[in-house]
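Practice problem: Catalase
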Amino acid sequence: MFVDMVQMGRIEEGQCPARRPVFLRLHGVAHGSLEVVSDLPENLQVGLFNNPGKSYPVWVRYASDIPDGVPDLKSTVGIGIKVFDVEGEKILTPDEHAPTMDLLLQNIDIFFVDNAKDMCEFTQASFSGESEQWLKEHPETAEILEEMAKEVPSVLETNLWSAMPFHFGENDFCKYKLVPEVVPTGPDPDYGDSNYLHADLVQRLQNGEAKLKFFVQLRTNPGTMPIDRATVRWEESQSSPIHVATLVLPQQDITARGQAEYGETLSFHPWRTLKAHEPVGSIAEARKVAYQASAELRRNVNGEPIGEPQVVRPDTVWPPASQGCQPNQ
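Answer key — structure tokens:
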């Protein structure tokens, strides 16, 4: 539904290149590493984290869930993390043997509807001009949408969550959280600049290295930490997030030639993961189909190959392009 109504509609209006239907406002693409905690307890050595001390190369994409032309201020911010050199069969077809795994997080720890049925109803109401009435009938969703519209001074200084649950091995479930640990200095936020989050990210990563702790929050109480009620918070007072890895983004120029373009060709999918981290819940099931259809449509329209990169893009800083250069022309 969302791909047909939003993404295809924009393509039919002449959008070029074809973009993602969600989180299409790009703030920046960066290279780095995901480093598993070296003294990780044995019970947490699961899937991606089964080798303490291992360092995975990554590329990350920071974005907001708004279209171009809309100010960054009070937009929902997210990150897509493409992890490379991940051994083991993945769930998503036809990428079972791809060496990559994806992690997606955003700056709120819950979702604005409980399940896939509510998501479809809300989407339909939005496109039929009945969203105001739907929100009156679902005040909890209205409250969460209001909570999502918050000021974000810097994407590097912001806590991010998966919001959705995942398997953690055979018998456990978890959610993910990303917390800033070391953030380079940057400018005061200029909320009058409609693209201030990009400017901030450029400046901070030019100034130094960023480190963000990656946590898993295990489900300890099924009664208060449900799987298919995405509006319900998993309270940290019941289960404290556990540090399992660190995302390191070295000092770099994210405006370097080809860097943003590379990130925009990547597909980020919550089901491109190991069986040990399988997504759960009806919204996850709906995303499995929608995300793949969206990526395939975008790449087909843009003339890009469908499939996962087999090797990580080098962090080479290429000479700047000549003024007026048009890619692929």
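Discussion: The chain has one domain: 25-292. Students who identified this feature from the tokens alone can consider the problem solved.
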